[in-house]
Amino acid sequence: MNINEQKKQFETQAIRTQTERTQYNEHSTPLFLTSSFVYDESEEMRAVFADEISKHSYSRYTNPNINEFVEKMTKLERAEAGYAYASGMGAIFSTMMALLNSGEHIISCSSIYGATYVLFSSTLPRWNIQTSFFDIRYPEMIEKLIQPNTKILYAESPTNPVCDVLDLGFLAEIAHKHNLLFIVDNCFATPYLQTPITLGADIVLHSATKLIDGQGRVLGGVVVGNKEIINKIYLFSRGIGSTLSPFNAWILSKSLETLSVRVERHCENALKLAEFLEQHHKVDSVKYPFLKSNPQYQLAKKQMKMGGNIVAFEIKGGFEAGKKFQDSLLMCSMTSNLGDSRTISTHPASTTHAKLTKDELAASFITEGMIRISVGLEHIDDIIEDIKQALEK
Ligand SMILES: *Cc1c(COP(=O)(O)O)cnc(C)c1O
Questions:
Q1: Which CATH number does 259-392 carry?
Q2: Quick one: pLDDT band at residue 174, thresholds 50, 70, 90?
Q3: I need a labelling partner for 219 at 20 to 30 A (CA). Which of 80, 93, 237, 244 fits?
Q4: What is the mean pLDDT of residues 238-262?
């Protein structure tokens, strides 16, 4: 990356990346749907396989479409290098397995994506990798959880599904004081709203399935960080086959071209919805990072450009009222995805988090009547109208 490249603004970097073209000189990046790449000479093939020269060989390793997507994400997140995966969980699992050995230890915030929670609390222990969870209200407790074998501090901000904001700069300081790698899942914010690496994170990962695709079409994941860490993660990942498909990479790279305008509208709509809900008599409380009444408003403003597209609120009447609200929606979709152009409503207590025990639910701050809205790109008046009529029922 030369100096001029680094100086370019976010919107430009998301669009103007050096693309690979065929002899037809396409303006839009072509799709390189091939599982492998051929060589003319045995000497060249030998050098590629010996890692002496870097050329595409096999799409489980690299592919022009994957590279383009990764290069954009790397620049947008202010990182040095990256690698892309078949899904967000593929990215998280591969990163953990590449960096940790049996007997090592993770410290993670307790409010994290459901499948990540299952990975840390049930799957990784099978390889003798344990996780201690800290309550996000008391980040100063992290130091008490550090053990001689602790290697990673892991966090999400804003958190899923409750939209709490963690002070990433403060967490980075604790991590580095104790020689831990600080990993941030930046899925809810996207690099348009916050770049954790500039706040001290060592590794940033994403489910590209969410706002990065933004149109509910493909799954994908990505990891970025410094060259040395990413090379270690890459060498592990290319061997186990969690790599992103070229087709999905092609879609996701195109999606990035509109990320800034999409996220901006998502956030404008979400703030308007949050302000509407705050005034509604059937709503007990609303959680949105950029609501002035949010105790974390100042921290959110310091760390994020806008508040994101997720609004959480507590409906009066608990579990049954939550389910009734879901059944009363006429337009908003009931599905488990988020960050789509279509507005999505979920009731975590009866769906995504139904398997959690009462204690685990409390630790994630999920209540029986909590509704999470992933605010889409429909006209805000129509979104509010649908939610209003469902609340009235
Ligand atoms: C969806 C999600 C993931 C997992 O991503 P997949 O692409 O579904 O595997 C991880 N973290 C967060 C915050 C998510 O929302």
A1: 3.90.1150.10
A2: very high
A3: 80
A4: 97
